[in-house]
Design a protein that fits this description.
By secondary structure, the protein is α+β, with helices and mostly antiparallel strands. It is built from twelve helices and eight strands. The chain binds flavin-adenine dinucleotide.
Length: 404
């Protein structure tokens, strides 16, 4: 729908309000967070119905083109939709890597056939994607990756392994970086391949994490046959696509860090200041009783507010620039630090209650908080480490010379 100004947006807002009233199950009010059911993962009939309705309407990805099932909304209409959803406690059930990183990249560089094949299922939340980038020995130095794809006429034969593949055990498809030329310079021999996770030869082993969860995996490829039409972008031209996808990834990670980092932490705390007051107590004027903690908490809240406002500016600039830029590295770096500071402050305020792991001595929200604090350690690693993002800022944003 084109954006012709205020009247059009008002008309759309009224339409959205009516549609939400008719379709959002009131029992799901405020139960958002990580409940999206990408890949049909929820057995709750209300969640399934809500996902189907949003998927049919295309409003889970409101600004994606209508031609592939997206909402086709202008950014003003998308904002109005979000405001109407917020007003009734509704949440977007369509998410995951397909929405956050792969889909936007596919829209930019995929063939028409690839878009027709993959975007509608992402829009409807039917298919889960995972990211096959990192390898043992190729994390920050991603371009050194060794998983190889040999040209066998009508298909590529893929052999190698990936690591830290989030959600690979649940994924239907993997967007994967593979080496297709071993003689070229390392950045020039990489291709971007789409691999069906049900293909014979794909094996996934979950990795247990420090916080008790197991959200990511080792993924092995042994003589996996991948049809040639699953190559996205030019042969040996995958590095440019890989970097573009990372910009979408960093934009999304920093946006979520600005909203509290970990959904568990957000739900558990009801806000870092409220949490600190609950555990530390208040003085006679209602202020946090511990003077030093109060000063650090105030610094943190101001930083967080500045981060959120800057995030909105960067997001607006990204829209007028046709997508995210290297500035996403600034936001990813700052967001990771702020999210980790937040969890540290909460755990400090909770004292020994912040050390709970299991057992009746702790409130369930306290146990969730400890796990969220540990999960936050990954914020400065996932999607590119803080050091690597600083390198990107120095080179691509500030234009500083390479120290080597
Ligand atoms: C929660 C989580 C989810 C993840 N999900 C995925 C996923 O789905 N798919 C996927 O492919 N990967 C995933 N990763 C992997 C992630 O992308 C890598 O862990 C990350 O890129 C760092 O690589 P590495 O672990 O090999 O560390 P290394 O590259 O070995 O880095 C080790 C340390 O050295 C520093 N360092 C390395 N090179 C430089 C340099 N040039 N300058 C300065 N410092 C440097 C790093 O900053 C870091 O502190 C995930 C990671 C986490 C934590």
């Amino acid at each position: 729908m084109a954006d012709f100004g205020g009247d059009t947006v008002d008309a759309f807002r009224a339409e959205a309000k009516d549609w939400l009233a008719a379709n959002f199950p009131p029992s799901l009010k405020g139960r958002g967070g990580m409940m999206y059911v990408e890949g049909g993962g929820s057995s709750d009939p209300a969640v399934k119905a809500w996902t189907a309705a949003m998927g049919e309407k295309g409003w889970g990805v409101p600004t994606w083109p209508k031609a592939y099932g997206g909402g086709g909304l202008s950014k003003d209409e998308a904002r109005a939709l979000q405001q109407e959803m917020n007003a009734i406690g509704a949440w977007n059930p369509i998410g995951g890597m397909g929405v956050m990183m792969f889909g936007p990249t596919l829209i930019e560089v995929g063939t028409e056939a690839q878009k027709q094949q993959h975007i509608p299922s992402i829009v409807k939340g039917e298919i889960r994607w995972c990211q096959g980038y990192s390898e043992p020995g190729s994390g920050s130095d991603l371009a050194s990756l060794q998983t190889k794809a040999e040209d066998k006429g009508d298909h590529f034969l893929v052999n190698g392994s990936k690591i830290w593949t989030s959600g690979a055990n649940l994924a239907d498809w993997c967007f994967c970086l593979v080496r297709t030329d071993f003689k070229a310079k390392k950045h020039d021999g990489i291709s971007f391949l789409l691999i069906d996770m049900r293909t014979p030869g794909v094996e996934v082993r979950p990795i247990l994490l420090i916080n008790g969860g197991s959200p990511f995996c080792e993924t092995f490829f042994t003589d996996v046959k991948v049809p040639k039409e699953n190559l996205m972008g030019p042969l040996n031209g995958g590095w440019t696509i890989a970097k573009r996808l990372l910009q979408f990834e960093r934009e999304n990670i920093s946006a979520s860090l600005g909203q509290g980092g970990s959904p568990t932490m957000g739900q558990a705390t009801g806000g870092v200041d409220a949490m600190a007051k609950k555990y530390v107590g208040v003085d006679e004027t209602g202020r946090l009783a511990d003077h030093d903690l109060r000063r650090r908490l105030t610094d943190h809240l101001m930083e967080n507010q500045a981060f959120r406002l800057t995030g909105r500016r960067v997001a607006d600039e990204a829209k007028s620039n046709q997508g995210p830029t290297a500035a996403t590295s600034i936001m990813k770096y700052a967001g990771a630090k702020i999210a980790q500071d937040r969890t540290e402050l909460i755990i400090e305020a909770m004292g020994h209650q912040g050390l709970g792991w299991e057992g009746d001595a702790f409130d369930p929200s306290e146990l969730a908080t400890t796990r969220a604090w540990l999960r936050a350690k990954a914020n400065s690693i996932e999607g590119g480490t803080s050091e690597i993002n600083l390198n990107v800022v120095s080179k691509r944003v500030l234009g500083l010379p390479d120290p080597k």
